[in-house]
Amino acid sequence: MSQPHSSELPTIQEVKLDRRGFLRKAGVLGAALPVAGGVLAAACYEDPSGAKLESPGVAPANVQPNPSPNPATQPGNTETVAEEWKQIDADHQAGVVNFLKNQKEALTAGRGNLPLEPRIENGVKVWDLTVDELDWEVAPGQVEKARGYNKMIPGPILRGTVGDRVRINVKNNLEHSTAVHWHGIYVPNSQDGVPFVTQDPIQPGQTYTYEFTLRNSGSHMYHSHHDSADQVNRGLLGAFIIEPADKSAYPKYDREVILILNDSLLGFTVNGKGFPATDAIVAKKGERLLVRWMNEGMMYHPMHLHGMAMEVFERDGYPVTPPYKCDNIDVAPGSRMDCIIECFEAGLWAFHCHVLSHAENKSGFFGLVTVLAIEDENFKVADILSRVEALDVPDARLRVSAAGATAGQDIKTSANAKGAFTLWCETQA
């Protein structure tokens, strides 16, 4: 029986909820999404192009792992401390509500990681990819200068079967040269996509054709291998799924989802979006969910699922024998991890990076955070979402608390990623 692709995975429908009902019914703030966090941001990031990217609303003190205490918020100033925490709680709640609203109607423009059906030419599966400059809205109000395949981030999902002959025509619409590497896929050396090693770079305006036969199954990736620290981190990445010719030994599953992680220049993202613009994963109680993890970033992301285990059966397209269970899966840069989730407990379950500065600060959740929503006869996501709009909370943008910057000043969630990226680079020097 054919399995639904990620594009067929349902999303949460019809949003609304009164404050008390929201907290009681969903338990989102207290139980379903309890992520402990810290503050990590930086004042600026040196763009490879030479431009300095400012991070509005981020206080210089936030660069410090342990910032000096603010006298105004010390225990002796109980009124100020109480007000600060009221603001922090309000910011957290606003972020979660906005995440739920996003499941009804997208808070951001643009969507990536969509399947691209090939055309057949003389028995060959053919895809056309363009490499484009674009403005990409990562989170509400956070628009970044980006690059994408077919004007989306991640690029379209390419899918084939072992034995298929494939051809990919890549047209470069950038002002810079580029190339495409087929990460983890067995290809002839001439098709490997490394400029000045296996090919000349694809110059602006040129089209380059890759052609090869699919020989190894698994969850694989494609991405730029030219100025890749900039091009990949600005969005030139995508998934290439190769099914085995014989699936008799493959785990059975009901739904599939592809989750591509990235960090740095666009912020911390899952499939090109940062919380609260990330998509929830919706399944029915009793279903088996296939999750294909891919890390296109330069940091480790241990992705933690609350409430149940993930059973890892493949890494980088190779079988894991025997499969093992965990609730914290360490997705290294460049790696792919395939796992099965037995959806046995209904509710909203937090799904987030456990490098906590990638997921939460005083202004709330951001970046690498989503939810696994499991429905049964008594728990329906629509019941929660039907009342969310009644909540009196700030719309779209997360807000910085008084401890982080001037009260009421908007903050781009990318500031946290850029700050973390800067500090990470410094540790590597």
Key structural traits:
429 residues, alpha+beta, Immunoglobulin-like, 2 domains, 6-stranded mixed β-sheet, 5-stranded mixed β-sheet, 6 helices, 24 strands, globular, disordered N terminus, disordered C terminus
Would you give an account of this structure?
The chain has 429 residues and is of the alpha+beta class. It has two domains: 6-109 and 253-428, Cupredoxins -  blue copper proteins (Immunoglobulin-like); 119-243, Immunoglobulin-like. The protein contains six helices and 24 strands. It has helices at 19-26, 28-32, 78-104, 228-231, 381-385, 414-428, and strands at residues 44-46, 52-54, 119-121, 124-139, 142-149, 158-161, 165-172, 180-183, 207-213, 218-224, 237-243, 255-262, 269-270, 281-284, 288-295, 301-305, 310-315, 318-326, 328-331, 336-342, 347-353, 360-361, 364-365, 369-375. The strands form six sheets. The chain has a six-stranded mixed sheet with strand order 13-12-15-20-17-18, with no helix packed on it. Strands 3, 4, 5, 7 and 9 form a five-stranded mixed sheet that branches. The radius of gyration is 22 Å and the shape is globular. It starts with 18 loop residues before the first helix and ends with a helix. The model is unreliable at 1-69 and 395-429 (pLDDT under 50).
